[in-house]
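Q: What does the assembled structure look like for these inputs?
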Amino acid sequence: MSIVSEARPACGEGLAPKTVVFESDRPLLTDGGGRIAPLAIAYETYGALNAARTNAILLCHALTGDQYAAGVHPVTGKPGWWEAMVGPGKPFDTDRYFLICSNVVGGCMGTTGPSSINPATGKAYGLDFPVVTIRDMVRAQAMLIDHFGIETLFCVAGGSMGGMQVLQWAASYPERVFSAMPIATAAKHTAQNIAFHEVGRQAVMADPDWRSGRYQEQGVRPEKGLAVARMSAHITYLSEAALQRKFGRKLQDRSAPTFSFDADFQVENYLRYQGLAFVERFDANSYLFVTRACDYFDLAADYGGSLAMAFKDTKTRFCVVSFTSDWLYPTSDSRAIVHALNAGGASVSFVEIESDKGHDAFLLHEPMFIATTRGFLDSAAAARGLAPNGNSK
Amino acid sequence: MNFTPAREAPEQSAQPLDQPRLDLAVIADMVAPGARVLDVGCGDGALLQLLAQKKGVDGRGVELSQRGVNECVAKGLSVIQGDADTDLADYPDDGFDYVILSQTLQATRRPRAALANMLRIGRRAIVSFPNFGYWRVRAQLAFTGRMPVTGHLVYHWHDTPNIHLCTIRDFVELVDQLGARIERGVALDRSGAPIRFNAPWWVWNLFGEQAVFLLERGGGQR
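A:
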C-alpha cells in the first residue's frame, strides 16, 4: 500500500503514536469543496481483529472527545472517555471485539485539523482549513477502515456528535454497517443547538489572543475565550436536577457571600475549573471547526428532506438510545430517528434510559444503559455468527 | 402495555420458555414459521421470545412501558417504545406478515382504528382479549350490581386501563365491519387452555374467559 504510510503524526504535538497518513494522491475531498492532503488520522485500537475480520466495532467520539476511548489518556492522565463501556467483560468487550476509535478530521489529537501544517504555506492552517462536515469525518473514518482491510463493521457506535457519525455511516455505507448504536443524538441540529455553539465560537473569537485564528504563529493561545465556550457548553451537558443536587446554592469555601465577583458559589468554581481543564487539552480553532460540523448536520436534507429515505431498505440493525434528562438532544430527537427507521422498514430497538444526569449520562456508569448495550450487541453477534471469544463460528 | 395480569407477574419468574403461558402458546400456534411479526404491546417480550424459539420468526415489538422495552432490548429483542393508538400509523403497508395485539385491544383509545391499522401493516392480525360476555362477569354484574372484578379483569372501575371492553360477539361484529375474515377463533377457559369443542358463538361468548382470533385482511379492503 504505497498510498499509505504508518508514521509519526505530521501535525499536532506528536501525541499520537498510532497514525495513518494518506498522501496527496489520496486527498479527502470535503463537502464544502475543500481538499485535505496529506491527511493524518490518529487512532487507537483495543482487542484483536479475528481472522475473518468480522468483529470490528468503530467507536465515534463526541465533540471534544478523542481516540482514547479506554485506557489512560496521555494528556490528562485520566481514564478514556468511554471507560464505563469499553474493556474486558464490559459491553464493548475487548476480549470479544476489535474496537477502533479515531480522532475526527478537524480535531486536535493527531488527526489533521486547523492546527496542522498547511502544505501550501508551511504554517498552521488556522481558518484556512476547509470547513468539514459530519460526512467528511465519516469519509475519513472509512479510509481508515479500508486501511485495516475491514469490509463490514460489526457495529458503529457513539454518542452525541459520535451518534451523528453513526447515523451518517448507516446512511452513506449501509452495506458496511452490520449494526449501529446512535446514542443521545439527533439527525439534525436545531436552532437551539446552533445557538449554543455560536455562543461558544463567539467567545473564542472575542478573545484578543485568538488573533483571527493565527495565534499559533504568534505564540499565544485564546485560553480565556475557549474556557468560556467550554463553560457555557458544559451547562448544556448537565441537567438542572443534577446541577441542583451537586451544587444548589452552596458557597465555595466560605460561609457568606463576599459581595464581589469571586466564585462565591460552588457551581461557579466548578465551571471555571471545567473551563481551565479543557484548554489544557483542546485547540481553540478545532473547537470552531467541530462545532460547525455539528451545526451543518441535517441528514434528511441530503435525502430530499426525508429521513426515512436515508435508511431505505437498510439491513443494518439499529439500537437507538436516549436519556430522560438530556435536554441537548432530547428523546424527541431520538424518536424522530426511530420513526424514520420504522418507515424504512429497518430493524430497530429504541430505549429511553431513566437518568437525571443529563446529556453526559451516556458517558457515565448507567446500569440500564450497560444492560441494553450488552443485550443488543449479544443478539447482533449471534446474528453475525460471532462466538463469545470473538471468532467467526 | 401490561394492562391485564395475563402478561405480568407469572412470566417474570424462573423458566418462562419451558412452560409458556397457555394463551401465548395458542397465539404462537397460529403463526407460520419464519414469518415477519410485529407484537404490539409486547410487554417483557415473552411472546417474541417464544416465537423466535419455536417458530424462528423475525420479530419486532412495540411496548408502551419503558421498563418493558428495556427488558426486551436487554434480552436482545428488537423493541421500541411506542403507543398502539398513535404510533401504528407510522408503519408502512405490508411491513409484516402478522401483527399481534395480545391483551391490549381493550386498553386502546380507538380499538377500531388500531385493528384497521394492524390489518394494513400485516396481511394477518392476531388479537387476544378478555371476554366481557364470560358468565362470571355477567353474573357479578347481574347479582351484585357492581362492576365485575375477575381473574382477568383485576382492576376496579375507577382505576382500570381497560376502557373498551367487549364480548366475543362484539368483536366478531367489528371484524365484519372492517371487512376482515376470521381464519381461526379460539376461546380460552380459566386456565388459559383452549375450549376443545365446537360450539356456536354464543356458547363461547358465555364460557370463554378470553378469546384469540386470527384475522385475515378482507379482499375488499385495500
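Residues 4-189+302-384 of chain A form a domain with the Rossmann fold fold (CATH 3.40.50.1820).
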